[in-house]
Specification:
Elements lengths: L6 H10 L8 H12 L13 H8 L3 H13 L3 E4 L3 E4 L3 H4 L12 H25 L2 H16 L4 H18 L3 H13 L1 H7 L3 H19 L3 H25 L2
Antiparallel strand pairs: 1-2
Helix pairs in contact: 2-4, 3-4, 6-8, 6-9, 6-11, 6-12, 7-8, 7-11, 10-12, 11-12
């Protein structure tokens, strides 16, 4: 893989340019994201050192460091102590430019984003009740069983939870809604990973997912939306609590 100071990394430095005076950490992160989402930089490329980025952008190293930390939380870059910072993958797949404002998320906006996610998930469940195929419905049920089987392995549990919601979104055949849900999930990923902290939380989540699956199976949009609303209320409180606990 390319590594600094090879061509791709040199291109990053050359593309930056100074930021306007007084720019916040979010401006640094957004400038880097703009470069990454163009598709010119190969995954695995090592970025220029913090000192060089700070000099080129005309900001302090602390601003660069905090911006890179935000990008790492979102899964865009991989910070390796003693080695450098690397572009993890295609940022355009992980975080569409239309939601790049998420880099500015603080506590209030994160909580608001959790509310938006809940509304979209409820709508997705409503649509799924009339659109989901029998095959996709069976697959959705299999995800619930995976959650049951991994109740003592919270990392595997969270992954099964994620796949449940992704498969539900895919089943409604609405690309825009799917992209929005995937993007919001990326923005909230660090909080989602921390939200389920014990077996009791996991067991409650299983009951709620099973109820959503059962409601969708009845092909009743109102029942499906209602079941998902119950789950989103509980999950939203857990997520918001995880955010507030870190403030």
């Amino acid at each position: 893989m390319p590594a600094y100071p090879n061509d791709s990394s040199a291109e990053i430095a050359a593309s930056l340019g100074a930021l306007e005076s007084g720019s916040a950490v979010s401006a640094v992160a957004k400038r880097l994201l703009e470069i990454f989402t163009r598709g010119d930089i190969e995954p695995g490329t090592r970025l220029p050192p913090e000192r060089q980025l700070a000099t080129t952008l005309g900001v302090g190293r602390s601003a660069v460091r905090e911006a890179l930390a935000a990008l790492e939380i979102l899964g865009i870059v991989d910070v390796r102590p003693g080695s450098g910072t690397y572009l993890r993958g295609s940022a355009s797949e992980l975080l569409p430019q239309t939601l790049s404002w998420g880099l500015m998320l603080g506590e209030p906006r994160t909580v608001e984003l959790i509310e938006v996610r809940g509304a979209l998930e409820i709508y997705a469940a409503r649509l799924a009740a009339t659109r989901i195929s029998d095959e996709a419905l069976e697959s959705l049920g299999a995800r619930v069983e995976e959650m049951r089987a991994s109740v003592d392995n919270l990392k595997a549990f969270v992954e099964a939870d994620l796949q449940f919601h992704l498969e539900l979104a895919r089943a409604i055949d609405n690309t825009v809604l799917l992209d929005l849900l995937q993007s919001i999930r990326s923005l909230l990923r660090v909080w989602v990973d921390r939200a389920v902290q014990d077996t009791d939380h996991a067991l409650l989540a299983i009951e709620e997912h099973a109820a959503v699956h059962a409601a969708i199976a009845t092909r009743d949009p109102d029942a499906a939306a209602s079941a998902m609303a119950v789950h989103m209320h509980t999950a939203g409180r857990r997520l918001a609590g995880s955010v507030l606990a870190q403030q």
